[in-house]
Amino acid sequence: MNLDDLADLAEQYRAIDANVEREVRVCMAASCQSSGAAPVLDALVAGLGESQPACKVKGVGCMGLCSAGPLVSIAHRDGSLEESTIYRDVTADDAADIIASLDGPPVERLRCPTDQPFFARQQKIVLENAGIIDPDSFKGYVAVGGYSALIRALSEMTPADVLREVTDSGLRGRGGGGYPTGLKWSTVAKMPATQKYVICNADEGDPGAFMDRAILESDPHRVIEGMAIAAYAIGANKAYVYVRAEYPLAVERLQTAIRKAKRSGFLGNKIGDTQFSLEVEIRLGAGAFVCGEETALMASIEGLRGQPRPRPPYPAESGLWGYPTLINNVETFANIAPIVREGGEWFASIGTERSKGTKVFALAGTITNTGLIEVPMGTSLRDIIEVIGGGIPGGKAFKAVQTGGPSGGCIPAQHLDIAVDYDSLKTLGTMMGSGGMIVMDETSSMVDVARYFMEFCMTESCGKCVPCRTGTQQMHSILDRLAKSQASRAELALLEELCEVVQATSLCGLGQTAPNPVLSTMRYFRDEYEAKLGDA
Amino acid sequence: MSLQQAKPPLPSDDKRWKLVNATMRRNGYADHALIETLHSVQDAFGFLDEGSLRFVAASLDLPLSKVFGVATFYHLFTLKPKGRHACVVCTGTACYIKGAGGLVERLQERYDINPGETTEDDRLSLLTARCVGACGLAPAIVIDGDVLGKLDSESLIAKLEELT
Prior knowledge:
The structure holds two protein chains of two kinds.
Chain A: H1 3-16, E1 22-27, H2 30-34, H3 37-48, E2 55-60, E3 72-76, E4 84-87, H4 95-100, E5 111-112, H5 117-120, H6 138-143, H7 148-156, H8 159-169, H9 181-190, E6 197-202, H10 211-218, H11 220-234, E7 238-243, H12 248-263, E8 279-284, H13 294-301, E9 325-329, H14 330-334, H15 336-342, H16 344-348, E10 358-365, E11 371-376, H17 381-388, E12 398-403, E13 409-412, H18 422-427, E14 436-441, H19 446-460, H20 466-483, H21 489-505, H22 509-513, H23 516-524, H24 526-531
Parallel strand pairs in A: 1-2, 6-7, 6-9, 7-8, 10-14
Antiparallel strand pairs in A: 1-3, 3-4, 4-5, 10-11, 12-13, 12-14
Chain B: H1 16-26, H2 34-45, H3 50-59, H4 64-73, E1 85-90, H5 93-97, H6 100-111, E2 124-129, E3 141-143, E4 146-148, H7 153-162
Parallel strand pairs in B: 1-2
Antiparallel strand pairs in B: 1-3, 3-4
Helix pairs in contact in B: 1-2, 3-4
């Protein structure tokens, strides 16, 4: 298959819906389903029936504004099915009103204004298909240009060309570390080995993060396409997606996507009539935060306990079963198809000097608009929280935002104007992480938050190295005593010392970053720690 | 594929063992299929008992200690049977900020069980999860697989009381 054949195929799939004037799209991602999207979809399908062939009802992926779910959007043919009205908090009873309004003005009482900053200020690359295509539909993905990047790479580019585009794009790993993706790919590509592996890390153990879940539930083919391009570039023929068992819907959609891609010749043997073959297999995680750590993740795929090992050797050299292995996160792979399609330079023109492209963030906690957003790197925290997120509800004051999960830290109000990118967050003692942002208002106690994260790290420590195993336990017991106003000043000093030791001597990222929430809250909210001292 | 050893007999004539065997066969009885196999045992039987661990160990030709080590390392695997219903309270950061701790305490008080335990009449298991990824609905609760959000403790208990 060449690009022209694929374009014909896409045209054919678009023609199926050529007579459709309107689409009624119901968000069927996990969050909206939990708020009752399935009955809404059923009611709309039943209500429209066969009576209006020009109107199509379909389930789609995440539209972003989870706090207002279930969401329904109406797209009209003019503007190529793009002009949409969005309805919020829809129930099955509203279906009749929505159907009745299709030819006239929208139902005002349900309307969610699309010109509000939450929608208007976003720039979508990773999520460009989310909320628009049916994640279970292979035809739907091809119709919007899916798999053209893979076929282009296979038919018109050498692996070196692909590596160059990815390197030029300046894309950095979206799992949290921010390691340059092009460099990682090139390292694995250079390894002389007969067998290489690609792994997609879809473990997403950070509490408060749900970007990977939403991407997999909204556009699973996009991730598979990115993995296939990566496999071609580095010379692998076997790939694994390591996905959390806690995300059953994501697993199901991924399975469907792999099956359909294989049946249509985009996975499996001789993809696109070239010599390139790729098998993709799903491996289920079993609930261990440490498996986000790449060496632990590989141990888990091998059927062992998910315990990390020292690096080097890095997985690029000796990974799964000792072979060179490329591990990237879901969002990183989801960025690949647009980079190949539009070129690395285009991608590099978005974002900041050292952090290119966009980033998907999960907004949660005490914030008006909870949900998923995608903004260019370098957007200020204030814009994200106050403008896009709609600020703090209930007239309360903003206190801090926690980024990077248990490996990150808390950012106080005085630093809200910082432009968000990998390096600026590090200067504040926190990190990008996978993109979870948890907003806290004035009622949150920071000592309590630090204790919460330490309890998390303590129970999630795999126990292999002593500093992490016993250090986190000691830190937790001091924080617990602090929270109960029983700790002395000497213990507070000991806590600081422990932070340094655990950070410097732990084997893997879990232990090395476990003290971050404590250090960052101590740095910005020292007075709260002092006020909790038992002998104060 | 390597030479197949004689496979151990099924622990019982329960048809669900066929599902477990199918998983192992699909993976060529390779030792790296251990986690997949344990998932399939737990999906079929609800938990992993000693008999099933022994059976899996013998089938995959692994030492029992290793199988036990893996089964106890991962949070999702449980060696205790669950009740007829399971209530999982998400204790992720967003849910914590929105009061998941209070929900767990209230449930502990009401049913006199700790997280990970089952009521004496076998009706309800109380569990906690690290993050179910439904942060927009915080505090999120999963009752028998269905995610529910934005519940307070009284409406949650009312929902649990409705279960038979």
